Amino acid sequence: MHFRKPLLTALVASLCASGAAVAQSNDPATLAKIRDAAMASDWPYQRLEDMTDLVGPRLSGSPGAAAAVEQVAEAMRKLGAKVTLQPVKVPHWVRGEEKAQLVEYTGRPKNVTQNVVLTALGGSSATPAAGLTAQVIVVRSFEELKERAADVKGRIVLFDVAFDQGMADRGLAGPAYGRGSAFRTRGPAMAAELGAAAALVRSVGGADYRVVHTGVTRLDENRRIPAAAVTAEDAMLIARLSKRGPVTMKLVLTPKTLPDADSFNVIADLPGTDKADEVVIVSGHLDSWDLATGANDDATGVTASMGVLETLKKLNLQPRRTIRMVAWMNEENGGKGGATYHQANRATLEKQFAAIESDNGAAGRTFGVLAGIRPQYEKLFAPLQAALLPIGAGVLQRRDVIGAGDLHALEADGVPSFLPLVDSSKYFDYHHTPADTFDKVQPQDLKSHTAVLATLAWYLANLDQPIGRAPEQFR
Amino acid sequence: MHFRKPLLTALVASLCASGAAVAQSNDPATLAKIRDAAMASDWPYQRLEDMTDLVGPRLSGSPGAAAAVEQVAEAMRKLGAKVTLQPVKVPHWVRGEEKAQLVEYTGRPKNVTQNVVLTALGGSSATPAAGLTAQVIVVRSFEELKERAADVKGRIVLFDVAFDQGMADRGLAGPAYGRGSAFRTRGPAMAAELGAAAALVRSVGGADYRVVHTGVTRLDENRRIPAAAVTAEDAMLIARLSKRGPVTMKLVLTPKTLPDADSFNVIADLPGTDKADEVVIVSGHLDSWDLATGANDDATGVTASMGVLETLKKLNLQPRRTIRMVAWMNEENGGKGGATYHQANRATLEKQFAAIESDNGAAGRTFGVLAGIRPQYEKLFAPLQAALLPIGAGVLQRRDVIGAGDLHALEADGVPSFLPLVDSSKYFDYHHTPADTFDKVQPQDLKSHTAVLATLAWYLANLDQPIGRAPEQFR
Predict the structure, then answer these.
(1) Where is the signal peptide (chains A, B) (predicted)?
(2) Which residues does A contribute to its contact with B (CB < 8 Å)?
(3) Is the pLDDT score of A48 beyond 60?
(4) Within 13 A of A150's CA, how many CA atoms are on the CB side?
(5) pLDDT by residue (tens digit) across B63-102?
C-alpha cells in the first residue's frame, strides 16, 4: 500500500522533493511549532472580520456568497496557495416580507391583535401577497400530528417542541439539535401532505430573547407550502391561547425561489512533496444564512481552515501530502458543494487520505478531535494528542455515526473524516439567528481552534502509517 | 398631628369603625398571614397571563392600552374594590416601517449592502417614506459629540456606548441603566441641535442576541429628527467599519405622532376604617412599549399591586388607611398618569400617607424594600422586616435619590415612597425589547413580589406612628 513507507525513506524523499523546504515530520518539536504559531496569529481573526463585516451574509446565490468566494480566493492567492474555483450549481432562495398576527382568539379584546415574530424557512413557498388567514393547530410530536390528521386540512400547523437546552448544557448540543431540527426539516412536508395551508415550527435553539432561528425545510417539489420558524416565546403564546379556544392567524410570507445560480467551492492547495497526489482536506462552509453574518456558522470554520495554510506557509513547512483548504458552497440549503466535490473525485477517492471540517463554530473552547476512523487506528494519534494537550485540546474521540455536513458523501464512500471538538453549549443560542455575528467569537477561541486544525492537518499529511477507511457503518 | 394616636386608641377606634371586619393590626401574626396568603396565591400570575396574552402590548393611545384599562377595572370590580377611572390625556405615538442598510463603506464588495437591525425611539419623527441616506458619525460620549460638532450637520449620529452589564451583575442595574439611557433620552436632541439628519443610539441593555431596546427620547418640539436604537451588534459593526473609512446608511423610519389620546389611570380602593381619608398607594404602570407584551415592564407591577387587594379581600382584612391600587397610564412616554394624579391631589397631599410603586419587574428575587423616608423613621420598619425575613425579603434600604417613575411628582412634594428591591441583574436584558414576555416571569417570583407589596401596604396602612415626609433632597 502506498502509505507504508518507513520514516527514514519518507524523510529522505521529502528532502529531495522539497528542495530548500524544511523537512516534513510529525516529531514533537514540529507539531509544537505549528501549534504555537497558530496560537500566536491574529490572521484568521482578521479574515473573520473581513468576511463578516465587509461581505456579511452569504446565502447561496446571493451577492454576499459571490463576494465571499472572491474574498477567500484572493486571500489564499496572496498566501501563495494554488487556488481553484470549482463550479457548483446552487439553489437560489430569497427571503421576502414576513409577518404574522393573531387576529382571533378566545378573550381577544376589541381592536386588539397580537404580532407574532417569525422568519421563513429556506425552501418555504409564499403566501398570497395579501397573506393567508387560517386557524392554528398546535402539535407537540409527529405522532400527535398523525392523530389529528383530520383537523389539519386548510389549517396552519405549529410544531411546538422546545429545544432541550439541558442536553446542550450537558455536552449534547448536537443530539439536542438533531431532535429539534427534525421538526423543522421534515415537519412542514408532513403537514403539507395532510393538506395544511402552512406550517410553523418553534425556533430550534436555546436563547430566550424572542429570537428566530431559520434553517432549511425539505418540501416535496410538488407540494410546497409556506413554512416559518416562530420564536420560542410566540410558540408558547399560541399554545397558551389555544388552550382557551381556537386561534386564528394571518400570515404573510413572500419568499421566492429563483433559478439555480452559479457559484463555487474555493479550493486552495498547499502542495505536498513525495505524496502530493494524496490529499488532506481542511474545510468549512462559505455560505451562511441570510439573517446574520454567519460568524460561527461558518466563517470560523473557513477562516480557521485558511489559517492552517497561513500557519504552515509562515513556518515554511511543506507537508508530504497536499493540504487542501476547501471553503464549501451551499452547506445550508442544498449541500451542492460537498456533492460536487465528491462527484468530481469519486474515481480516485483513495487519494482523499482524510478530510477535516469545522462546522460547529468557535464560540467556545476547542478541546480535541472527533475522528471518523476505525478503532484499530486510534492509537496512531497519541503523538497528536500529546502535542495538543498543552492548549487543552488533547481529547481524541472516535465517531461511529456519520454526519459531517459537506463531507457526508466522502465519508459514506470511505474517506476518514475529522471534526474539531468544540464546547457547543452556547452554539445553538446563535445558530441560524440574526445574532450569529463577529462579536460572538473570542479571538482566543479562534486561535486554539486554528491550532487544532493546523496541527491535525499537518499530522495527517505527514503520517507514515495508513489510517484505513471510514468506519463500516458510515456506508 | 393626625398620625400620633396611641396604639390602644387606634385599635378601639378601628374596631368600632369596622363593624364585623377583622381588627386591623400590625401584629406579627397578621403580617405573617398576609405574607403567607400572597405566597400561596396564583391569582396575580393569572392576571399577568390575561394581561400579556389577551391584551398584549399596551403603548399609550393604543387599543391594547384601552383594553388593559377595561381588563384591570373589571378584575378589581369583581374583587369588590371601589374602582375609579381617572381621565388622563396621553401622547399617541405609533411605530411605522423601520429598516436601515449600510450602502457604502470602505471595502464593500460589489452589490453588497449590510442590513442594520434597529427600532424607532418613542417620539422619533419620520424620515421621508423613501428613506434618507447620509454618512454615519460614531461618537462615544457627549463630549466627543461636542468636539466633533462641525462634522455633525446632515449626518446620522450614532452614540455607541455599551451598557455596563458588569455593574448590573454587581447589583447596580439601575445606575447602569441611568448612564446608558442618558444617551437615548438626551442624545438625539443634542444631535438635532447640531443639525444632524438623524440619531441612533446603541440599545441600552445587556443581552447579546441582536435585540433592540426601544424607549423614549426627548426631542425639542421644534427640532425633531428620526431617532432609533440599533442593536449592540450593529453598533459595533458600524464602529468597526468606521475605522476603515466613511460609512453611509440608508435609513427608513416612518412613525407617526397622532393627536393626544384619552386614557385613564385605573384606581381601585380598599377603603380604610378610622383613617379612611388617608391613602397608601400600591401601584405599577399599565402602559408598556409596543414591541412586547410588557410582562416585566410593568405587568408584574400592576398585577402584584392588584394582588395586594385580592390578598386582603380574601383574608377579610380591612386596613385603617385606604389602600389604593393604581395602574398608572403613560409611564413610558410622557408620565401623564402620575402627573394627573398629583395634580388632582396636590391640595391635600398630606392625606397621601405613602406610595408604593413596583416598576423593576419580577424577573428575579424580591429581597426587600427601598424606602424614600428620612433616617429617623427607619427603625419603625423593624416589625415589617421581621415579617418578610422568612421569604428572604427582610432588607430595608433607605433611598436618598428621587426617581420612582409615576411617583416622582408625589415624592417631590413630600410623599414618602417605597419600591420593592428586586434582583434586576437580568431585567435590562429584556427591558423595552420584544422579549419582555410572560414566560420571563417565574410564578414563584411574582408570589414573593406580591407578598412584599401586600405586607408593606398593610403595614403602612395600619401604622400608628407617623413616617414623616420624603427626604428633604427629593424636593
Answers:
(1) 1-23
(2) 49-50, 53-57, 63-64, 66-67, 70-71, 105, 107-112, 114-115, 117, 207-211, 232-233, 236-237, 240-241, 292-293, 429-430, 433-435, 437-440
(3) yes
(4) 1
(5) 999 999 999 999 999 999 999 999 999 999 999 999 999 9
Q: In B231-319, which ranges are E strands?
A: 247-253, 256-270, 275-285
CA A106/CA A103 separation, integer angstroms: 10
Residue of A nearest to B70 (CA): A109
Q: Tell me the pLDDT band of A14, cut-offs 50, 70 and 90.
A: very low
Q: In terms of C-beta density within 10 A (0-12 exposed, 13-18 middle, 19 or more buried), how is residue A256 classed?
A: exposed
Q: How far apart are CA A55 and CA B90, in angstroms?
A: 45
Q: Given this model, what pLDDT does residue A475 score?
A: 86
The residues pairing with A267 across neighbouring beta strands, listed in sequence order, are A84, A326
| Mean residue pLDDT across chain B | 94
pLDDT of B22 above 70: no
Nearest CA in chain B to A244: B54
Rounded to an integer, what distance in angstroms lies between the CA atom of residue A217 and that of residue A222?
A: 14
Give per-residue pLDDT as tens, B138-150.
Answer: 999 999 999 999 9
Q: Which tens digits make up the pLDDT trace of A130-186?
A: 999 999 999 999 999 999 999 999 999 999 999 998 898 888 888 899 999 999 999
What is the interface pTM, i.e. ipTM, of the complex? Answer: 0.94
The 3 state secondary structure assigned to B41-96 is CCHHHHHHHHHHHHHCCCCCCCHHHHHHHHHHHHHHHHHCCEEEEEEEEEEEEECC
The answer to whether the predicted template modeling score (pTM) of the entire model surpasses 0.90 is yes
Confidence of residue B24 (pLDDT cuts 50, 70, 90): low
Q: Hey, do A7-92+259-474 and A96-254 end up sharing a CATH topology, with the first three levels equal?
A: no
How many C-alpha atoms does A238 have within 13 Å on its Cβ side? 33
B237 to A64: CB separation less than 8 angstroms, yes or no: no
- The pLDDT tens digits for A362-405 are 999 999 999 999 999 999 999 999 999 999 999 999 998 887 78
Domain B7-91+260-474 has CATH 3.40.630.10: yes
| Helices (runs of H) and strands (runs of E) counted in chain B | 15, 16
Residue A307 pLDDT > 60: yes
> Is B331 in the active site?
yes
Q: What is the fold of A96-254?
A: Glucose Oxidase; domain 1 (3.50.30)
Question: How far is the CA of B412 from the CAs of B189, B254, B279, B369, in angstroms?
Answer: 26, 37, 17, 19
Cβ atoms of A76 and A313 within 8 Å: the answer is no
Q: What is the dihedral of CA B48, B54, B60, B66, to 10 degrees?
A: -110
Domain boundary assignment for chain B: 7-91+260-474, 96-254
Categorize the per-residue pLDDT at A7 as very low, low, confident or very high, splitting at 50, 70 and 90.
very low
b/e per residue B45-60 (b: at least 16 CB within 10 A): bebbbbbbbbbbbbbb
Catalytic residue among A278, A331, A332, A411: A331
Calpha distance A185→A178 (Å, rounded): 10
From the list A233, A293, A437, the residue facing B439 with the nearest CB is: A233
- Cβ neighbours of B292 in A, within 8 Å: 210
Which residue in A has a C-alpha nearest to residue B68's C-alpha?
Answer: A109
Whole-number mean pLDDT of chain A? 94
Q: Which amino acid is at B348?
A: T
DSSP string of B91-114, one letter each residue: EEEE---EEEEEEEETTPPTT--E
CATH fourth-level superfamily of A7-92+259-474? Zn peptidases (3.40.630.10)
Query: Residue B47: what residue type?
Result: R
Q: How far apart are CA A297 and CA A123, in angstroms?
A: 19
Cβ neighbours of B241 in A, within 8 Å = 53
Q: Count how many residues are written for chain A.
A: 475
